[in-house]
Amino acid sequence: MGHVLQHIVGRAALLSALGLGLTAGGASALRLPLLQDSGYPMRVALVFGAVLAVALPSLPRHHPFPRLGAANIVTGARAGVMALLAGVATAPGAPVSTWLLVMVASAGAAADLLDGWLARRSGLASRFGARFDMEIDALLVLVLSALVWRAVPLGAWILASGLMRYAFLAAGWLLPWMAADLPPSRRRQAICVAQIVGLIVALSPLLSPSAARGVSLVGLALLGWSFAVDVRWLQTRRYTP
C-alpha cells in the first residue's frame, strides 16, 4: 500500500473513531428525551460501528483520491443519524417519541441533499462514495419502515419498503445476471427520496392511521415499480455480450 493510500486509510480511521464517539455521545444525550433504556447508546454505537466496518475496507480500491472529501464525511454523519434511529427501532417494547424522531430523521434526510453535490463540486466523486450513499439510504428506509410499523398500527407489510433492497441483493447472489451494474437513474433517486420523505410523514403524529397507511402504500407501490423497472432492464441485457 502506497503512502497516499496509507494516509487516506489513516484519515478515514481517525474520522470514524471521532464519528463513533460523537454518535455515542449524541445517543447518551437523546436517551431520556427518546424514552430509551440504558442500553440505547450501546445499540447505536454497535450499528454505527458495523456500518463503518463493512464500508471502509472498500475505500482504498474505490476512492482513487488522496482526500476523503466532505461528501463522504456528510454521508458518515448520515450513517450516525441512521444509527440513532436504529437504536430506537431495535429497542424491544420501548415507546416511540415520534416528534423527536421526525426531527432527527428529517435532519438525516436533508443532509442527503448535500453529499452528492459536494462530491461533484470538489471533483472527488467516486464509486465508494456513490455506494456508501446508496447503502445509507437503504438502511434509513429499513429503519424508518420499522419505526412506522411500531408507531402506527400498520401491518408488517410496511417492512417490505425497507427489505426490498436486500431482497434485490439476495436475488443477485442467486442469479448472477441480476448482480450487474445499473446505470445512474434520476427515477431511482427521486423515488428513494419520496420513500424516505413519505415514511417520515407517516411517522408524524399529524397524520391519522388511515392517512399514514395511504402514504405508506403509495411509497411502497412506487418503490416496487422502480425495482421492477430495474429487474426488467437487467433481464433484457441478460444475454448481451
User: Based on DSSP secondary structure assignment, what is the total number of beta strands?
Assistant: 0
How far is the N terminus from the C terminus?
Answer: 35 Å
- Percent range of helical residues: over 70%
**Helical stretch tally:** 9
Write the H/E string, N to C: HHHHHHHHH
Query: Beta-sheet strand percentage?
Result: under 5%
Quote the average pLDDT: 90
Gyration radius from CA atoms, angstroms: 18 Å
Low-pLDDT stretches are none
The gross shape turns out to be globular
- Write down the domain tally: 1
- Determine the structural class based on helices, strands and strand pairing: mainly alpha
Q: Characterize the biggest β-sheet.
A: none
Structure description:
Helix 5 (about 100-120) packs antiparallel against helix 6 and helix 6 runs parallel beside helix 8. Helices cover about 75% and strands about 0% of the residues. The chain has about 240 residues and is mainly α. The protein starts with a helix and ends in a 5-residue tail after the last helix.
